[in-house]
Amino acid sequence: MSTNPPSSAGKPAQQALQQQTRTPTPSGLRYPSNKKTIYDRNINRTKTSELSRAAFAYLFVEMIAYAQKRVTGIADLEKRLNNQGYPLGLKLLDLLLLRSTVPSTPPTTRPTRILPLLQFITTTLWRHLFARPADALERSAANPAEYMVTDNAPLVNEYISVPREISSFNAAAFVSGIVEGVCDGAGFRTEGVSAHWVGEGDAAEGGKAEMWPGKTIFLIKFAPEVLEREEVMGKGG
Amino acid sequence: MSYYFAIVGTKDNPLFEHEFGTSKQGGDGIARFREEARHMNQFIVHSSLDIVEEVQWGSGATYLKHIDRFHSNYISCFLTGTNAKFLLLHNPDTHHPSSSSLPPSASSSSPVTQFPRHPTPSTSSRGSTYGTPSSSYNPTAPAVEESIKNFFVDVYDAWVKTVMSPFYHVDGVVRSPVFRARVQGAARKFL
Amino acid sequence: MTSPPDVDPLKSPPAAESPAASIVLPKRRHSPSASLASLPYRRSNQSLSTLFASTSSLSKSRPSSGTATPTPSAHANSPFSPGPSNGASSPLVASQGRPDEPRNLILRSFVPHVGVLASVDTEEMLQEKGFPGGLLQLVRPFGELIPGKVTIRDSIGSNRSWEDFGVRFTGLKDGLKSARRSLSGRKSTDSRPDSRGGALDNVNPAWLRTGGDITQTEEVVDRHLSFAELQQDDISMDYLNHKEFSSGTPPASSPFHALYLRRLLSALPLSPHETFSHPVACVIAISSRCENPIEELRRLYGTTNTGDLRLPQWVDNSYLRYYVLVHDEDHDDVAKSTSLYQQMTRHFGLHCHMLRIRSNECLPSDDDSVRLPSSEWISSAEELAEIQRRETSDDVDDPTPCLFESDATAIRTFVRELVVQSVIPSMERLSAQWNEQVASRRRGLSGRFMSLSKKWTPFGSSSRNSSGPMSLNSGSNSNYDSLQGFYRPDAPEATMRKLADYAFMLRDFKLAQSTYDILRSDFNSDKAWKHYAGANEMAAISTLLNVQGLTNKTRTESIDQMLETATYSYTTRCMAPYYALRTLALGLELLRLRGSSAADDAARWGSRILEAGLVGPVGHAIFTERISACYASRKGIGSGSWGSRKRKSGLLAMLAADQWAKLGKYAQAEKALKEAKALYGVADSEGEGKKLPFDGMQMLSEELDEVLSANRMGSQEWGEDTIHPNDEPPVVEEVSEELETKPHRQSLIGVPAAPFAGLEATPLTPTRMEHAEPAVENQFEATETG
């Protein structure tokens, strides 16, 4: 986790605060003390910098705690985490596109088909977030609209121990939110991206589950019009 | 040469608009659109979204080059990852305010003023150049495409920084004067 | 759409003290009077309204009734219904209103021309009968649609029947004078008021019967529009009530566009570069009163051959002569006429006919009277003259002459016989002959060889430059007379062109296309630019009419190139804007009918019309609307409708609305604006409260709303007030009362909310400004945490 404080959670409050502090200066613009706005910084400066894992773990736990307030159930909690991740995905998409190319050339890797998009997610996005690619990418045999991205040991779950009573809860819902944001931003509307444990109960994969107790599958379900477009565009060229 | 630059969100909503003129060849960087052309520009840019949507899925390029034309208004497009559309309308005619440069439809008088001219040879010769009064201007010339590309890349850089703001929502209007200054700077530099 | 509560509905609208009213007022004052001042007529007499029937019946939001002549039911409903029914059912009823109407229009516009020449005694007899225009006036409407099926055999020997075949009866030299007039008389047509004020009355009727004048076409359509504008007030209640009903229907071809196209294609001028208007046959008629019939027929033949009526040397003079004996049923002896007829057949062969009609004048009150059908394909000048004549006449009755039912039947029989037994067979014969003798030689390898050798003979270029009338047959390698700009009719190129045109008129588009194709290269190498343009034009059109499954590749490569070349040559090399407009307008229609991706091309050619400035303000608005329709006809693929052109269509519709409003044609503007709003998804019915995405777009839309509602309000006010003396030319003063008494003014009260709709929707300050928030995104270094 190197960039982007997952900050959207407290947004309304902060925005209100922002408005308040702003009122005395009607010009509306306050420069930082060093007279440098965000626009004056190189966007690639932090490309290789890394974030302390402990700091992230602490922050993430706080995010879960924040999300957990007044939730009605596991589904609701996961939804909130998903919502926290979603704007991140939107932003990362553009940032990673910009960084994927040599400076001052327009990116040419804008994903326009499902597969390139998924590859972008499993490699570029994953590498950026977790410093390694995702472990597997599969298409559902039963439903052509569903794709599965597997992560054997999601970073987000590393320091989380789920209480027994909500054992199905997967904190990687946050990551699924990021993935959904990327898909949506790229124009591939999904009917939801969700994170699921692979483990107990799955007899066939039982051995593996031992090996990767935190193994998580991200299920991406694309909207029908995306598939339809895929077909139309595939025909057209 | 006058330019109208708009960033359009995913719901066809304008996120940012800016007008400027060329700074090359002694241009003063001021747009010379006629008053009626102001809203026409918006209409034209909006209408070219039809074309954007068509070519959008064709290639993974972000810079889609010159995609559309309406009379002598040329539209170049750049697509960001999240499908915000950078649309640059370039109108080469405004250097010569004497010629009825704008789409005749845009102004009240021009259909009327234009009509009696058709028997005269001067307008007939105009028809020779594929109907465009601005025959000298070629929107697909490598130099033009290149400078517009550079402009877009510069704006894209600033755009990503804007979008990175945790307070920026998708399809939100950008009001930052710094961003505007950035666009202006890119325009001065390349167009 | 509710009026502000503080406005008393009984108060007259201008009394509303809304701040926006001051903005509206000047426009309101100005527009209705301005638009009405340009109307030279004030009388909506019945005879006049029949002239406008082709467009007015449609303007009453009755989109399905595409008939050009009102059907009886329309008569019954219309307050302007002409008294007696006009007799023959409209020849267009069958074919119009079909989805591919423009295609039919095009098919029916390029038809064989048949000259009509009658002896003095015949003309006298018909003038007594009440036809001042003589035989031509009598038979002309009947030629436009041949009753029953007409079977034509094409070049490969298969027969095809057509129900909508027709011929055009013309005076022999009709199309000719126009050519001169449009050059020398250009000045007078440019200054429109002159040409309007009776100048047309004095000109030779043959001059009137010539088309090809864009300005006049504009004017005719403008008259129709103005008339519809006046009528619109009457039907405004009706119109508003039918809002929901009519908004659901797809954008049908506007009646004004159809009219524009028809007038554009009516009375094609006689020109060396195409032979559509060259006579295919000539009817030579004498009457039973003639003292010396055979001699008279010979004399008439002589005038067409060597005398006054000899057409210019670039017209092939060997057209078919068809001899007609007009027998006077009322006064002359049938037996005598029959024997005369038999004598005629002995002298002149089979191409003869005896037409038995009564010479007594037929009154509308007579039992078996029918009105002369109105002619669909009259030229713009003729229609203008007719409109003027009826405006100035005090006679409220329809002045169209009547004839007896038996006469009408006799004429129909005559026309059918003429076409089916003489004109078509002779055309078929000639095209087969030419195809064999000239064209097929050029199609093979040797043919290409021949044209090559022709091009590369050593003296080719020099002799071509010096070729004059004298050197035409003196060994010049090019048959083209570049000084006078034509091929002699016996030159192979001229014959080929005739072959292609005949094939086109006989609707054998395959043969036509291949022949035009050959001609293109020939004309190009001869630098016969007008011919070259013409061949390209017709090659493109016949290709579009012919090939059913046209691939995108052929379309973009050949059609585009042909249209481009034709337009370029017509406008730049030949200064023939009329033909350029014809090329583009036809190309547009035919491409549009191919739908989907071709609709884009159609729209592109449409924009070309506008950009090249080929049309006047009325045409500009009409074609803008048309381009919008082209884009609208392009439907997207799938649920996302990828590749649709809704926004473009919306833009054009909005522009059309703007142009109509500026022309003072508010009814049209309203229609176009509604169309545009529907396309943008902000129509009143569905998009309540929705706004156009861009401020400027919303602004224009609101401005238009305002202008239109102000006009609606204004026309009401205007009807109640007296006319402002400064605004109105004195000519129209006398009839102002008539407008006041019109019943429709009251009907507007039924829509009290409308005038305020625009005001209400317009915030005086842009909302954006009020809610402008300070920028929030600058201070945060979102990207950086480390």
Automatic annotation (TrEMBL), chain A:
Gene3D superfamilies cross-referenced by the UniProt entry: Trafficking protein particle complex subunit 3
Localization, UniProt: Endoplasmic reticulum; Golgi apparatus, cis-Golgi network
Keywords from the named record: Endoplasmic reticulum, ER-Golgi transport, Golgi apparatus, Transport
CDD domains: TRAPPC5_Trs31 (cd14943)
Major localization class: endoplasmic reticulum
Keyword Transport: yes
Gene Ontology CC annotations of this record: endoplasmic reticulum; TRAPPI protein complex; TRAPPII protein complex; TRAPPIII protein complex
Compositional bias (Polar residues): 15-26
Domain of life of the native organism: Eukaryota
A biological process from GO: endoplasmic reticulum to Golgi vesicle-mediated transport
Annotated region described as Disordered, given as residue ranges: 1-34
Keyword Chaperone in annotation: no
Role: Plays a key role in the late stages of endoplasmic reticulum to Golgi traffic.
Subunit structure: Part of the multisubunit TRAPP (transport protein particle) complex.
Family: Belongs to the TRAPP small subunits family. BET3 subfamily.
Protein name: Trafficking protein particle complex subunit
Taxonomic source organism: Aulographum hederae CBS 113979
Automatic annotation (TrEMBL), chain B:
A GO biological process held by the record: endoplasmic reticulum to Golgi vesicle-mediated transport
Biased amino acid composition, Polar residues: 120-139
Record-linked CDD domains: TRAPPC2_sedlin (cd14825)
Family matches, as Pfam families: Sedlin_N
Skewed-composition ranges (Low complexity): 97-111
Record region (Disordered): 97-139
Protein name: Sedlin
SUPFAM superfamilies with a match to the protein in the record: SNARE-like
Organism classification: Eukaryota, Fungi, Dikarya, Ascomycota, Pezizomycotina
One cellular component (GO) term of this entry: cytoplasm
From TrEMBL, chain C:
Entries under Pfam families matching the protein: TRAPPC-Trs85
Biased composition annotated in UniProt, kind: Polar residues: 66-93
Region (Disordered): 1-100, 179-203
Gene Ontology cellular-component annotations: TRAPPIII protein complex
Top-rank taxon: Eukaryota
Ranges of Low complexity composition bias in the record: 13-22, 47-65
Name under which the protein is recorded: TRAPP complex protein TRS85
Lineage: Eukaryota, Fungi, Dikarya, Ascomycota, Pezizomycotina
